[in-house]
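User: I'll paste a sequence; please echo it back and then give the predicted structure.

Assistant: Echoing your sequence first, then the prediction.
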Amino acid sequence: MFSALPRITLSAGSLLLGLLAATPTVNAAAAANSPSAAAIPTTVKPLVWRDLVNRPERWPAQTRLTTEQRFRGEASLRAGTVVQIHAVKPNEVELIAPAGFLFAAAPGDCDLLAAANAQWARFTPEQRALTVSDLQRDMSLWPGRATLTVDQSFGSFTLKSGETYRVMRVSGGDVALWVPGRDGQQVVPLTATDVFVRARERVALPRDQRPGRMAEILDGLLVDAAGKSTPIGAADVYVQYLSASTCPRCAAFTPKFVEHYNAVLAGRDRVAFFGSSTDATMPPYFAYVKSTGMPWPTLPHQNKNVMIALGNLGVLEIPGIVVFDKFGQVLLSTNRIGGAPLAAAESALAQLDQKLPAGSAMARSQ
């Protein structure tokens, strides 16, 4: 049965949606207590409605109305209309109409349960076992990028369904996305993205075979010493060096780092190095890169906060070194070593020999 609901604002970053009451059309109890008509293998226990309540990982990406929905003001949605899912409750489901408003419907007024069971039957046991809590704990399941499935309004701007952004973190049922030109990361509900769909692709693989996300995050952000965009290869470990052309401590440390890299680190296997500028403008930093012989690509000043947000690093003093694994987990950081910045950088440099795998490194010559 439908119920009249007050106007609400969805969780942080989501679109303000008007909750409308529609005319009841079916027996909700019968639909809620019967499994889907979809063919379910005999070895897979079918879901019932209560299995979907507060379990967004079990919901399909969208659902189709099976009855016409009429609202106050003579607005209506025809049977067959595809709508998004906002919440599943014991006796109803909150759906998002194509126009953006939220409405409550009975379980039998959409094919949600049938669609959920259809995908449930296709999943491997590992995919069926995956929960939101598992996703939050395991960074190897996080994709480098995610696509929005529902518009997200932030007052002065809106992120549109279908747009893709870099994933910084997954926490508390939300996803922090990096939105260029919008003062850093924006937090949206996990259910408003395809993160869980992408995570299911990864969980089917052994952890050591899962694709990393660092290359996907860094793609399009790095430049060479001439300021031209340059790619970075897939690696197992990524080393970020933060410095500035005007920093006296960097003037003392950078030559040591470059010398140590050329003598010891350049032969490391599946390791990617990149610099990160804290200069306010890039021309002086590019000159600094050339004069010191830094052989790796650069993350320009306007992009440096991407990595700070990714590693949840807070304030980083320079010279700084941060080591990430391919999933974005911080393995080593000067701001976690403590002590004076130059001493911390010296300590991090000494630890790199143990942190990096042996073989040939992947720094890209300028």
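The radius of gyration is 25 Å. The chain has three domains: 8-122, 132-211, 215-355.
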